[in-house]
Amino acid sequence: MRQSEIEQRLLDPVGQAQLAEEARRLSAATGVGGTQAEDAREVRRAGTTPFSLKATAEEVRATDLENVHRRNWLADIGSILPEYRNETPVATLEAFVERYRQQPTDLNEYLVQDAIVRLTSVGELDAEAQEVVVAALETLTSVPLASQDADRPKDSIWSFLYRHADFRGRSVLAYLGPSSIYSSLRSRSLRNVDLHDRISSFRVDASAGEERGDCYLFEHDRFLGRFVGVRTDANDPTRSVDVTYVGDSINDRTSSVLLARRFSNERVRAIGDPISKALIANIVADVKKVEKLRGDPVFTWDMWPEGGDSHPNDPDKRFVQIKIPVEIDVNNWFNYDAEIWLWFYLYIGQPNPPFFGEGGELRGYLAHYGAWVESGIISGSVLDGIMDALPARFGEIEMLLNTLLGSVNADAPYTNVLLLPGDQSQFVGTRYLEGHVEDNVSVVLLKTPPPVLTRMSVNLS
User: Fold this and answer.
1) How many angstroms separate the Cα of 337 from the Cα of each of 39, 42, 108, 327, 384?
2) What is the tens place of the pLDDT at every residue in 93-117?
3) Of the CATH numbers 1.10.760.10, 2.60.20.10, 2.60.120.10, 3.90.700.10, which one belongs to the domain with range 63-262+450-458?
4) pLDDT tens across 188-218, in order?
5) Closest CA to 386 of 332, 343, 312, 336
6) Which of 108, 132, 165, 317 is spaced 20 to 30 Å from 412 by Cα?
């Protein structure tokens, strides 16, 4: 009911009685007794939908699960290798560097990274420790893993993130080695080194074998909120890109960090353009009881979501998420503000087809849906109404998705799909990008085969 209708009833004795009776009915139905309840929210799996082409196990594995690696970042070295429990951090790092030279395995690579962080996270390095860290990083980024082609230079991207501006104070290393597209630091990892919401400057660098890479700092955990991004120099990847001050928008507010590998032959599209927003808005506007839209749909992402009231529990996948703010009409009562949520999984169909010319197209489907309703005595009932009405629109929603995906498949075949925050077209000609993850989300499609991927995402601790 609109505010004007409520006001008219309040000025009329009969209308007042009708409103009072409706309030008593709602109170009895909900058992609230006139007090204000909490807001309501729910997320459900979309299940089988009219036009969905679900990814096969092989396609999910190739897009997101190919030897997905999880490890406890900054491990307790003393518990893993007791013989180093009483060694100094400098001596331990030097020993691990030599160990890695002799046996360049994933485990030994991680031990070098952790030993570096043991030094840098304590405080600003003295000259001796700095020299040891530089030498260790040189080994880490130049000596190929045993699983790599020894004739190829090792490709690595890394960043040191500092407590204070101008690269002062304690720091932490974020490292993206070969065979992976993403590497991340989550809030609990930053808390372990007392750098959660305490980063003011950072450096980004890459090895000579790297094409280019991005480093993003996010305001919230799980790569949400405001962000700043910095890109390595494609013409000179070994030249450090220095950010002496992260900017007021993110200074002392970083809760997660993401490194992303980039490639020279990519196709990039920010999907939250005005046309896409208008099309999705038209579909949702027809959902039962939606009175009107309260604003434009928001195109964003949900990376490796771990469940809760507002996210699906699907931690091995990356999603494009659309949020649509709406106003819900309630008969004989106040209208409710609400938000409809849609999660889309994008993948490459048959990324490794048996015959040339087959597969390699970008595909997607609606994987999860949900909603939020503002607090009120019938928030739960309003939420149930939205969730029950949405499935009737799944067919139209997926037809729209297929139309959007078809616009980029003219350049197929592709080998993989990445998601990056914001409108990546604004990153052209600059090495600095600032925004909010709800400004937009970009789909990056890889045209040429990247290095053999053995871990799609790492360091998700």
Assistant:
1) 10, 15, 53, 5, 14
2) 999 999 999 999 988 898 999 999 9
3) 2.60.20.10
4) 999 999 999 999 999 999 998 888 899 999 9
5) 336
6) 317
Nearest to 114 by CA among 141, 127, 142, 133: 133
Distance separating alpha carbons of residues 409 and 426, to the nearest angstrom: 22
Judged by phi (left if over 0) then psi (alpha if -120 to 50, else beta), residue 222 lies in left
C-alpha 264: how far from chain center: 22
Distance, CA of 272 to CA of 421 (rounded, Å):
11
Give the DSSP letter string of 259-325.
EEEE-SSEEEEE---HHHHHHHHHHHHTSTTEEEESS--EEEEEES-B-SSSS-B-TT-EEEEEEEE
Instruction: Tell me: pLDDT of 1 over 60.
Output: no
Q: Which residues contact 298 (CB under 8 A, 6 or more apart)?
A: 272, 322, 323, 324, 325, 438
Report the relative pairing of strands 40-45 and 241-243 from DSSP bridges: unpaired
Per-domain boundaries in the chain: 32-59+269-446, 63-262+450-458
Please tell me the total number of residues recorded for the chain in this structure: 461
